[in-house]
Amino acid sequence: MTNPPAFLDRVVRQMKGLIRYLPVLLLTVSFTQAALAQSSGNLLLTVKFLGMSSVYTDVRVTDGIPAAASGVLVKASNYTTDGTTIEVPPGVYDLRLRKGASIYMVDSVNCESTDPCIADELTATFTAWFPGLTEFLPG
Hints:
Structural class: alpha+beta
Shape: elongated
Mean pLDDT: 77
CATH topology of the largest domain: Immunoglobulin-like
């Protein structure tokens, strides 16, 4: 068996060094993500949908059409639970939330200032009234 070329040996040594420091690098990136978002001029859009899981969220440039959310896709968040936070440039956005076949639109979320950019209270309660029914007996 022949010896590998010298450049290949150097590449292997450099990769071993990178792999040794990779966990520290990933930890540093995760802690500074929010700080980088603020320093780059972008804002953090927080979307809350408490009690729901596997929700796909699209952030789109507002199209001015009620309940359409058909503008250009800015960013998306894949299948999260209870909410998500997405870094966006300042602007006004429409949101499209999907869970299975159900789609819910949120129009004109204002993320133009440094105020918190939050879309919440997106879940609803359904109440059914049955006039004349005074007692329900499970059958």
